[in-house]
């Protein structure tokens, strides 16, 4: 039915709410019908009506008592129907059937589930804009219930005899017309075109902490200590993200839908219902689907299964754990708090995670201490036991990690939540006791692994078998996986023009406005993300030439996009977050002129009203930077399997054992692994490399089943010693997976749903400089810079420096501007010819592709590399500031006869420098420096700007910003086309002249802000000489500075202990005689009173001292005890803030001296030796007091 033939019926309903907090609420309802059918609509309401925007306690947790309900038996007209005599079709899209009616019969009364008829209702009480759902009557067929048969059987199989032919023909015709490209290609955007976007599924935004992990921990402790927040900790199950929004809302993986990942997810979730509800499962599954779709909700889960590839340990069972519940509404998604998630899950008997709450300073400091004690050896049993003991509240998960996944624990996630969370959790635990699992003993049919094992031909066969096994009550149609019979030959991928048309069309509601804003920003800033559009098979019957439906997947390719987007949100608080797992339904449609004018006016008013009411606080009233405080804490027993073994397979088999060793050593340095564990792991990994290469030859094991090779090796290795067992954590319970592994066509995960985990460090390894630079290997000096950074001038100075770099290795330079052909292969050839030389690579090395080539050269030619970068503060998204860019441009425009023809005679010199500048876009200076240090183990900064310089003149700043904006416009339209060509050629010519004029006018300023070149050369030479000698100390990258802890102690100043011994020696002949032949000043390096030891006293005891970390405590020395083998002070500990500090040792003491071959712990036996007459005791009266500091070691 065309828009021109629709009759628009509009009425306004005003609801007065009794609560004074609710204002009068006006809502316009719009109905469309096709002439000549008359439409009579009656509304009946429940006794009480509530405003759409409820208080927080009503919106969360699903406790909504005041509602308008939609009659499940209500009849609707499909918008595809042209007349009342059209045959009845099943309305799959609303999950409602269309009954036989006469044209003059009124449509039955309808109750409304939510305020407003349409799904398009704006949030915050705003006026509805756009097309609502359509209602009407048809005749000529009997009612058919969609739930009784999957739509995969095609429309003709589902419909009754009176309608099947017509419906099948209509569906086939619509699909044929759509896929020929006619509808989308001919759909033009004009003033009557509108877009309506609804989020269908999403997971939490990915927030990257700007602060270091240690700073985040400190801030968390501070907030909890002040009563501003509670810290929540949950287990990180080792699986993949799965989201579910109902059988029509859809099942989604992280970046895809309609594939093996979502089929497995639906099967496992369906099986969870069977386990929980037993014989009631089918009924509850249907109710759950209805609930999610009626309330526009999505649940997110960690899908843990052995059929989708290996992580850290192959799970014993296949299961899901609910990690988030989201109300999608028609505005910004709202995520339930964890107590509300638990209430929701217990109501529906869904699996929950293990959660701990820490609401006091003592508990939160104990938690971090417990993690530090366990981070290198922790497995599920000791970790959960320790956290149970130190937490204020512990809520066990309904799925026991130890039983269903195993002992290898990926990690913990700690985040800041409302300070009221503890009270809320206690209330939920009282109101919602753990539900029974009545179906656990029943025969649930074939398992996931059995189904996958029985269907090995291809991915499609496995998907179909899984979906059929789920049953029609939970999965009544297969549209997202297979479409229907008419769509089998068509691709579901839509043309890219969908996105541009969506952005050009007028937004029909507030959500659409915000989503358009988000996508425009990401495209403008060129974030690494894709916006994949697909045809929406659920809406095929509603498609017409002026009404198109699509699904959009927002696929973020790199975590850098989340970091950059966060920065944009700080400048634009009204921006919606960039979510992980982001799926949107899009409707492009047209309205007539009158309605279009009304919609345009209402849309403008809507945006103005909402923008003026943007909130400034994050969730729970916390400031955004605190509301998003989160830290992930992983365990070494997991990381050694995934990061060190699995992710290192390609390096080991493609580049050899030496490259593999470099890789794992660098990873351990990044993690700040303790020296002892590094030695143990190195020994084990070297042995693993020999074992697997000998067994597999040149055939690299698959990362999907790598545990089949790893676990037998680890099991045998662990049996050799208790130390090996602690290193491995757990081994020997391997579950075979080869026979039931899910089939992913092409052998890889195109959508990134089973993405290989990556640490912060880049994938390519190299040797840290301090450990590897020696006289028998070479050195590559390279320059990640921009033209004009003075690298060639610097290289000349280095070549001419007296004595070179302080050793006898020859120094060579290869100038990029004089090399014909590819530069870096020439450097590699030169390195092979002169392997022990120092090579100055005189060419800008601006990106990771070049850095990887340099790393490859280092491995293949036995060399180290050191980057030299111009020092600059940078911007939030670029390591070079505008001040530095101005200097570089000024230098380039003042040089003549440049070998590379980049000088004042170059007509596009400014454009070329902007091109280099943008090669670094997306990294702050801190991120840039950190990545170079992590890749190459060193970094030399060449001084560039005076620190006390005055600000950049406005004219210079403006011309640079204008050039940057022009560059973005140019590259968005023309890509890498030269600036002298294309539609902006005249603008570039004008800007280049303006740039020269302004820089020349400010020459005095630009010269004044630069440090003298001689000073810069001197600084670089000194740093290079230090590196060449091997004395270089790697600078901080502000990574995790804390490591594993073994014991807690009161650290005492050695100088005061020495003074005390000297005084005693002068006053007591026995002490003097004892100390006479002992050089205490040399032997006594450290003094402490041990409080607790992990091995002797346990993790909880050790963690309890976290409350007093770095606090001063007085220590009273009451006696000196010594024998011919050892000596120690007897100690009595004082108090911190009124709380007595007690040592877990039976005899608190400070060990002063032990004879050769005697362990320090033997000093504990001195009181016993004294009682036996084998030691001497000298009491102090009064005691002697020295103040110490409580520390972890």
From TrEMBL:
GO terms for biological process: tRNA splicing, via endonucleolytic cleavage and ligation. GO terms for molecular function: RNA ligase (ATP) activity. This is tRNA ligase phosphodiesterase domain-containing protein.
